[in-house]
Amino acid sequence: MTATRAGRIVTYTALTLGALITLFPYYWLAVMASNTTADIYSSPPTWAFGGEFFHNVGQVFAKIDFFGSLLNTLVVAIVTTLLVLFFDSLAAFTFAKYRFPGSSLLFGVVLATFVVPTQLSAIPQFTIMAHLGWVGDLKALIVPAAANAFGIFWMRQYAQTAIADELLEAARMDGCGFFRTYLTVALPVLRPALAFLGIFTFVNAWNDYLWPLVVLIDSNHVTLQVALSQLNGLYVKDYSVVMAGTLVAIVPLVVVFLFGARHFIRNLAAGALKG
User: Fold this and answer.
1) Which residue ranges does the record assign to the ABC transmembrane type-1 domain (predicted)?
2) What is the secondary structure of 210-264 as a DSSP string?
3) Gap between the Cα atoms of 57 and 100, Å rounded
């Protein structure tokens, strides 16, 4: 009994320390966003919240089109996430439960795209977007990201064990075609994996900086990350304003993560109880 209690104390202590270490960067971000740049550079640095937060946020709104870029980022992140969830889950369901000529080779080609760094694909993608006339348009961010190898691999691994072959046989006996089986049998089972992939895709689309910087040459269609980079002056950097903009920009991410994580855990627990 004593050993069990000691084990729980060690576990809870480790979890608490891990949570504090994880949350500290956000606390420090809030401290810097509520002070002046001079306070940030002071030695020793200040650890307390200041009274400059609303002034710094006002400077953010005055220097960049925050809400316009926020809307652009929301559109890109939401549409990209929905497309990734559909195409990746559809491809993964096919690779996991159906065999057709060349399926293994095609899946190997999909996995091989992991080897190619994102930076190397920027120039070919930009050339394609230029030929399509999409440079400076949000379509140039959404369409190339509509499917990805990681999502297909992740969903395939989950579908292989989560979707029972007996369910597919029962669906076929009931006269279900491929898409009806996918919608009525596969998707309900894949919800925990879809929740994780949705969070992962949304965060990546929200935080993407390099590709929007390259392809969105029209300043009226910049995303939030590119707009925040404009807060950095050429010679003078007001880090308190930059941190204030960053703090406001991560609020939607926190909301999406809290909602998605709860959905993920709920569906995962429901699947465990059914199992």
Assistant:
1) 70-260
2) HHHHHH--SGGG--HHHHHHTTS-SS---HHHHHHHHHHHTHHHHHHHHHHHHHH
3) 56
Q: Does residue 267 sit within a domain?
A: no
Please state, in angstroms and rounded to a whole number, the distance separating the CA atoms of residues 152 and 218. Answer: 32
Q: Is residue 30 part of a domain?
A: no
Alpha carbon separation from 131 to 119, 124, 127, 128, 216 (Å, rounded):
20, 11, 6, 5, 15
Domain count, the chain: 1
pLDDT in tens, the chain (275 residues): 566 777 788 888 998 999 899 889 889 999 999 988 888 888 887 888 888 889 999 988 988 888 989 999 999 999 999 999 999 999 999 999 888 888 889 988 888 887 788 778 888 899 999 999 898 889 999 999 999 999 999 999 999 888 888 888 888 888 888 889 998 888 888 888 898 898 889 999 999 998 998 898 766 778 999 888 888 765 567 888 889 998 998 888 888 777 766 666 655 554 443 44
Helix, coil or strand: residue 91: helix
CATH assignment of the domain containing 186: 1.10.3720.10
The terminus-to-terminus CA distance of the chain in angstroms comes to: 31
Q: What is the DSSP letter of 182?
A: I
Question: Considering Cα of 129, then 131, then 137, then 142, what sign does the dihedral take?
Answer: negative
**246 part of a folded domain:** no
Domain that holds residue 93: 65-230
* Domain assignment of residue 133, yes or no: yes
